[in-house]
Amino acid sequence: MVGDLLTVDRQKIWTEQINKEAYTRAYWGRKHEELVKWHEENNFQRPRPNTAELEDKIRKLRGPVIPAEIKQTRKKFETFMPKVDQEELSKRFEEFKMKPATPSTRKMIFNGLSHFDEGRKKYLMNRAKTKPEIKWVYPQTSSQDYGWRLTTQITYRTPKYGRGRTIQDTFYRPNGIPITRGKTLYGIC
Q: Which of 96, 104, 123, 176 could form a cystine bridge with 108, CB 3.0-4.6 A?
């Protein structure tokens, strides 16, 4: 960058700009010569305000130097906490606990060893297969909100040859975009 400033072409451009500015200043001064003389003569004739007057004006504009004292009240502030019924609170907390397993599922824990895919392992695998709506009263995570009670809205059967079209069958319209009087719903032909 510094090397660019020292080239001969750049120096000529810079010199030309300085000369243009000087010429423009001189031209403006000559054109407005009377105005410049009038300002030089009249500027010093105006009475200069007293320093004390200027300080008074500044104080009025700024306002008081020290803000007014804050008056403290003797009133004490207390945080109000509504009283909660312990029985109702315990009932509400019970809603957030997982529902107990069915007796037949619970019996799986005591039959066999986990090493042979029986006992506790079989119980946990069976419990994992149950839907969250059956195990919980409310969704426990935000991702469960999306699929909560989905089975009541959509009837999904496993496809015969293993390829499902859940989104196409449930999300898209079965007949495409409806057409009214030769135009589509959105006004595009």
A: 123
Ordered by start, the domain boundaries in the chain are: 2-50, 101-184
Instruction: Report the alpha-carbon distance of residue 17 to residue 26 in Å, rounded.
Output: 14
The continuous run of DSSP H or E covering 179 comes out as strand 179-180
Res. 75 pLDDT band, cuts 50 70 90: confident
Q: Measured between alpha carbons, how far is residue 93 from residues 13, 26, 66, 83, 134 in Å? A: 82, 88, 56, 17, 18
Q: Is the pLDDT of residue 95 over 50?
A: yes
Contacts of 112 (CB under 8 A, 6+ apart): 118, 119, 122
Residues 6+ apart with CB under 8 A from 98: 135, 136
Give the closest residue to 99 by CA, choosing from 122, 133, 65: 133
- CA–CA separation, 167 and 156 (whole Å): 11
Angle CA 37–40–43, to nearest 5:
135
pTM of the model: 0.38
Of the candidates 150, 157, 148, 102, the residue with the CA atom closest to the CA atom of residue 127: 102
Per-residue pLDDT reduced to its tens digit, 138-174? 888 888 887 787 777 777 677 677 676 666 666 655 6
Distance linking the first and last C-alpha atoms of the chain = 59
Amino acid 176: pLDDT = 59
